[in-house]
Specification:
The protein is mostly helical. It has two domains: 284 residues, Fido-like domain (Fic-like fold, Orthogonal Bundle), CATH 1.10.3290; 60 residues, Winged helix-like DNA-binding domain superfamily/Winged helix DNA-binding domain (Arc Repressor Mutant, subunit A). The protein is 60% helix and 7% strand. The protein has 14 helices and six strands. The protein has a two-stranded antiparallel sheet with strand order 1-2. β1 and β2 form a beta hairpin. α6 runs antiparallel to α7 and α13 crosses α14. The protein is elongated and about 75 Å long. The termini are far apart.
Length: 362
């Protein structure tokens, strides 16, 4: 009796319930088209800002799923440079973060280019610029040469959730995967992103970084399905929210037969929820764009524009002159003067008093 999906006769010819998946695809296509339609109404600059936000979240959350917490300001800084967005007072990114950003940018900007073994090895090397994963030396830019197991400890006992194909089978399985991924017309483009995600997880071709590369490939496949490199939502952020279900359905699918209906249904539902959440964020982008279209001429001072953008983006906590001084790198007296000027112009109002004085947007 086969233990894992790749041991079943006929692998990798997956099957699924056509009716159930068609309904899920229809839902995804609807929300996907609605979001892209809204974003097309925005100017290039606003689109770039929305993309910067979405891709920052994608890279940060993809690593968070694996237990690695990245400096989001460094990720944002690296992405801004690649997108030619001028961000002031941002920290210089590490080589590690730059590598992650470069891999994701290549995947989305060049989504129509075939994914070759050499290109994939380049992404893997970009994730591990030192050749180490934590304290462990790994094979970088090469397929693994050892067995891989997905293991957890439960009540002091080691539990094996999945064992990937033997290393001697990896190259052959990856050839089949890449040939299928690069062939046009062999699956619905949205459905293809779901199958690609699962199939790469099944093979688990590298010593480390398989999860992040899986989600990078997923982003490339989604960009192909939308025929645009512009990314306005984060699949990884939604997976992080639903991580327990994500791992549950992956385990059930990889230890079952070739019917992957449960996985496809979950993935497409998660994708729809990711896009719907992005629509809510897009509403704020619209409001911000309308605000600056109406008031831009009244606020020529760059620091004041930054103050208002902090509030428009949903500043967490009370905005005080002290906080403005630190964030904008001006003296507290200058910050107080700029805030008062915005208050006099009717953009802010003062709340509290004394040490509790803070400002809110009208």
């Amino acid at each position: 009796m086969p233990r894992y999906i790749y041991e079943y006769k006929g692998y990798p010819t997956f099957t699924w319930d056509q009716v159930a998946i068609l309904n899920a695809l229809t839902t995804v296509a609807g929300v996907q088209g609605r979001l892209l339609g809204k974003m097309q109404q925005l100017g290039f600059g606003v689109q770039q800002e929305a993309m910067l936000n979405a891709m920052t979240e994608e890279i940060v959350k993809s690593s968070e799923i694996e237990g690695e917490i990245l400096n989001s300001a460094q990720v944002r800084s690296s992405l801004a440079r690649h997108l030619n967005i001028d961000l002031q007072h941002t920290p210089a990114p590490s080589h590690h973060i730059d590598g992650m950003v470069e891999a994701m940018m290549d995947a989305t900007r060049n989504h129509r280019k075939p994914l070759t073994k050499t290109r994939l090895f380049g992404w893997h090397a970009a994730l591990f610029p030192t050749g180490w994963s934590g304290l462990r030396k790994i094979r970088v830019g090469k397929f693994r040469s050892d067995d891989v197991q997905i293991v957890s400890n439960r009540r002091g006992h080691e539990v094996v959730h999945y064992e990937a194909p033997p290393p001697q089978e990896v190259a052959t399985q990856m050839e089949a995967f890449l040939r299928w991924l690069n062939k046009d017309g062999n699956a619905n483009p949205i459905l293809k992103s779901a199958i690609a995600h699962l199939w790469f997880v099944i093979i688990h071709p590298f010593d480390d970084g398989n999860g992040r590369l899986t989600r990078t490939i997923t982003e490339m496949a989604l960009a192909r399905s939308e025929n645009t490199p512009l990314r306005f939502y984060s699949m990884s952020a939604q997976i992080q929210k639903e991580k327990k279900d994500y791992y549950r359905v992956l385990e059930c699918t990889t230890t079952g037969g070739l019917d992957i209906t449960a996985w496809l249904t979950w993935f497409l539902g998660c994708l729809a929820r990711a896009i719907e959440n992005a629509e809510a964020v897009a509403g704020n982008v619209f409001r911000k764009a309308e605000f600056w279209q109406k008031h831009s001429a009244l606020i020529p001072n760059d620091t004041q524009r930054r103050i208002l953008n902090l509030l428009l983006d949903g500043f967490d906590g009370n905005l005080t002159s002290g906080k403005v001084g630190k964030i904008c790198k001006v003296s507290q007296d200058t910050a107080t003067r700029l805030l008062q000027d915005l208050t006099d112009k009717g953009f802010l109002k003062v709340k509290g008093g004394g040490r509790s004085t803070h400002y809110v947007r009208i």
